[in-house]
Automatic annotation (TrEMBL):
One GO molecular-function entry: methylmalonyl-CoA mutase activity
InterPro entries (UniProt xref): Cbl-dep_enz_cat (IPR016176), MeMalonylCoA_mutase_a/b_cat (IPR006099), MMCoA_mutase_a_cat (IPR006098)
Organism name: freshwater metagenome
Residue span, Methylmalonyl-CoA mutase alpha/beta chain catalytic domain: 1-305
Name of the protein described by the UniProt record: Unannotated protein
Length: 312
């Protein structure tokens, strides 16, 4: 959560450097969060994020519009929580995670399908994931009230703690950037600080599972029935790949190659100038059917490609 908001602050600072008034662009910013399985902690995470965003936008960046202070965010249930063993149990996990997102104030929601630890979802499993959202939205009535757990001693205490720890991370990033969240985020990426913290967290969680300090139903405990697991999964065949290649080939044959090259040349030229917004060139390239790969390769020719430093 803290890393996500820090990136948001970095974009705010970059936009302000470009001369944009904060209230002109901040209401259009939106965020993407993951909903994990620790129910109350997830709710507290979203509540803390909303508090932090409102405070920073007013106190640090001078926003006066209420819409600039509102944290607009989408939530997706956690793919990492899905298990290949007893995959039907993933329906329960997803429902709990989705409910946490709703109670935390998400504006939109994606629910993962039960078979995504095994393959891309089938139509049936995707429909069950959709119905999970619809039951929450239309049968439980939990979305009829804002912040329904506000005032709960436990949730408020968790929210305060989440906020406090996030502020500690912001202070570190700000320090790395010598008073700039933008520069701090750049330093954090270049020095592998973000990646290292994420890797450490993942390692600690895995050790907790291996030591039996945390339980995964159907994986570390309650294994009865695993040997009976049978689920039809979506199969992507060579014929499917061939069909997609033929579609792409058809698009390339029918498009105006000269227009495509002109658009890519313009994109490369604009990319050299750090003062030029690349979005118009990207839109123009898309309109003449340049592929995503062609556009990315063009920009990579100017910017190079990020090479991650190994995290030890």
């Amino acid at each position: 959560m803290a890393f996500t908001l820090a990136n948001g602050f970095a974009y705010v600072e970059l936009a302000r450097q470009a001369g944009l008034p904060v209230d002109a662009f901040a209401p259009r910013l939106s965020f993407f969060f993951n909903a994990h399985i620790d129910f109350f902690e997830e709710i507290a995470k979203y509540r803390a994020a909303r508090r932090i965003w409102a405070r920073w936008m007013t106190e640090r960046y001078g926003a006066t519009s209420e819409r600039s202070m509102q944290l607009r965010f989408h939530t997706q249930t956690a793919g990492v929580s899905l298990t290949a063993q007893q995959p039907e149990v993933n329906i329960v996990r997803t429902a709990i995670e989705a409910l946490a997102g709703v109670l935390g104030g998400t504006q939109s929601l994606h629910t993962n399908s039960m078979d995504e630890a095994l393959a891309l979802p089938t139509e049936r499993s995707a429909r069950i994931a959709l119905r999970t959202q619809q039951v929450i939205a239309y049968e439980t009535n939990v979305a009829h009230v804002a912040d329904p757990l506000g005032g709960s001693y436990y949730v408020e205490a968790l929210t305060d703690e989440m906020e406090r720890r996030a502020e500690e991370i912001f202070a570190k990033i700000d320090e790395m950037g010598h008073g700039s969240m933008l520069e701090g985020c750049i330093v954090g990426i270049d020095e592998n600080w973000f990646q290292g913290r994420i890797a450490d967290s993942a390692y600690d969680l895995e050790r907790a599972f291996n030591r039996g300090e945390r339980t995964i139903v159907g994986v570390s405990k309650f294994l009865e029935g695993n040997e009976e697991d049978q689920m039809d999964t979506l199969k992507i065949t060579n014929a499917d790949e061939k069909k997609q290649r033929e579609r792409l080939s058809s698009v390339k044959q029918d498009r105006n190659e000269a227009a495509v090259q002109d658009a890519l040349d313009r994109l490369a030229k604009d990319a050299v100038d750090t003062e030029v917004n690349l979005m118009p060139a990207l839109i123009d390239a898309s309109n003449v059917y340049a592929t995503v790969g062609e556009m990315m390769n063009t920009m990579a020719g100017v910017f190079g490609r990020h090479v991650e430093v190994p995290t030890i």
